[in-house]
Structures are given as structure tokens and as C-alpha cells.
Amino acid sequence: MGRLSANGIKLLIWMVVFTVLITLILGLRLWAIRVKRRSFKLHDYLILLAYISTCCMAGLTWWAIANGLGAHTADLSAYERGVQFQLIVGSSVTWLVGTVSCKLSMISLYTTLFPSRRFTYAIWAMTILVLAYFIAFICLFLTQCHPVSYGWNPVPGGSCRSLFIQEILSITLNMVIDTLIAVLPIPALWRLKMAIRNKITISVMFAMGLIVVAVMAFRLEITLNPSTNADFVQGLYLVGLVSFLELWLSIIVVSLPTLAPLFRMYVEPVLARVLGSKGSGGEPRRLREAQHTIGSDPPSRRKYALQESFLEEGYEFGVVGTETNVKGSRGAEGNSQDSLAELVGKDGGTGLGMGGISVRHEIQIEREE
């Protein structure tokens, strides 16, 4: 123990940076839940499971790095090579639990955004496919060697299958499933009555899952490269890095839609002030100065616009400037529009539509100087 390779140190740096990043993302997700004052939902629990599984995989990898991960296989002792085999078994299980949890979390999130019956059938079909993938490959990973410990504790009559075929199958099916999950909501989204700009924004957000597919395509190329298998322990460095990237990016992509409340509460007001000051911020001041120079009294009151918005179960109430909109529950399509409105801003560009009520008020808060 204590043999650190240059490749192992590189992998360790990647792990530290992204572990901090996904921890921050998860913290922001929990903060968004508190801001919205909602209870935990299934997709929240699943992403927590993915995070825990990824951290367990990181712990196993740190142990393997301390025992020569990334070095040449011939330079390691029998014990150190055994540790690498233990890493394969442990990381295969934790990686599978992590990636499946991310997939199910995204699918569960879709059910809250698209409650239509037709889309629900597609969701159930995708869920069954993901669970079947999990069951099939957990069995394959745990029966790779007979007995399981044969890789680090050989016994007479034991054997191990080649990793090559099951790796190709796992990566290929994973790419297909992730692609289906990424494009699954797009047809339902574009059937909704929303502004084209908002449809494009939400489509891009969902399609970010294709970044993970690109990472898996790179992993497939690495697996097919003969040099990866020529030096087993050294090749584990690159395979491990790409496997981690898949999990890290999956957690980030799945969590992004849930951070919308924080964006609206903290980022949008700043952008509004910045863009407002650049666009017409000087006009009110110049107008007041002009009025004063032609003999009018200087302003004695300051007026403040009230802005507020929130979304509850089945209806949306918003006050933006001087206009108030009240949206009642309008069935599955209306609920989808209201839920998706959270991802793009306060109004979501949906309009009131049929059954909506528009109430216009002049609301001002005045303070005497």
C-alpha cells in the first residue's frame, strides 16, 4: 500500500473537484425544496441514492488509487492487483445503482410535469425498461467470477468471464436508454400551447442528457481500444474517469430543472436590474430633471412596483408590475403548462388559455419622504 501513480493522482483530482461540485448542486436542490416549501418527492430520494452510490464508488476508487490504480500492471504486487479486482466488483455495483437512480429520478420528474394519460403509459414502459436493465446487469456483474472473490483470491476450479462483452452490452444499452429518456418529453412539450422561445429553452434543458450519451460513446471507444486491455490496471484509470463523468454529469443534468425556484428568486431580479439599468435606467431620472427645470415641483413620493409569483398545486397566481393573472386548473395540458412555467420564468409564456381568469389591478406602494 502507498504506491501512487501519476494517473491515479489525476483521477483523484477529478474526483475531489466533481464531488465538491455535485455536493454543491445537491445542496442547492435541497435549498430549492425549502424555498418552494414542498415535501420530498420520489425523484428527490432517487437523486440522493445516486449521490450516495457515487460517493461509495469514490471511496472504493480512492482505496484502489492508494494501491496503484493507473500504474503498469507488472509493477504491482499480487495484493495490489487483487485490490483492483475488488474495485471492479464494487464499482460495477455502485455505478449501476447510481446510473439507474439518475434515470428513474428523471422519469419520476417527468410524471410531475406531464400528467397526461398517454405520456404516463410511455413513462411506465420506460420505467420497466430501466428496471429490467438493472436486474439483468446486477446479475451479470455479480456472476462475473465464480466464486465472486476469484479475482483476488483464486481457488481451484474457479474462473472469470471476459469483461469485454458485458461492457459493450452495458454501454450500448445505456446509450439507447439515456437517448430515449432525453427525447421522451419533447413531443408532449411541443404539443402544449407555449411560446416557441420557452419550448426551445425547456427542450434544450431536457436534451442535455445527450451530453451523458456522448460521454458513454467515448467510453465505448475506450473499451474497444486494444491498448485498454493490454495493460489492465493502467487502462482502469481512463475507464474509471469516464464512468465517473457519466455519473457526475447525470446528477447535474437531472438536478438542473429543480433549481428553477432559486433562479427565479435570486438570479432573475439581478438580471432584471442589470438589463433595466442598461436599457432605460437613465430615462426616469432625466424625466424628473426635465420636469423640475420647467417649473414643476420636485417629486415628493417614491413609488415601488410590487412583484410576486408562486406556484401551487393546480393553479398559478402572479403579480408582475400592475397586472394580476389567476390561472385555474385546466386539466392535464393546463397542469403541464403551469409546471413547465416554473422552468422558464414567472409566466412561462403560456398565456391564460381557455378557462383562465384575468384580473387587472393597479398596485402601488407609496412612501412619503
Automatic annotation (TrEMBL):
What protein family is recorded? Belongs to the SAT4 family.
**One GO CC term on file:** membrane
The organism's lineage is:
Eukaryota, Fungi, Dikarya, Ascomycota, Pezizomycotina
Q: Which organism is it from?
A: Aspergillus ibericus CBS 121593
What name appears for this protein in its UniProt entry? Rhodopsin domain-containing protein
> Would you say which domain of life the source belongs to?
Eukaryota
| Membrane-crossing segments per the record | 12-33, 45-65, 85-109, 121-143, 163-190, 202-220, 232-256
> Which portions of the sequence form the region Disordered?
279-301
Give the main location.
membrane
Q: How does it sit in the membrane?
A: Multi-pass membrane protein
Per the database record, which ranges form the Rhodopsin domain? 28-264
What InterPro entries does the database record attribute to this sequence? Rhodopsin_dom_fungi, SAT4-like
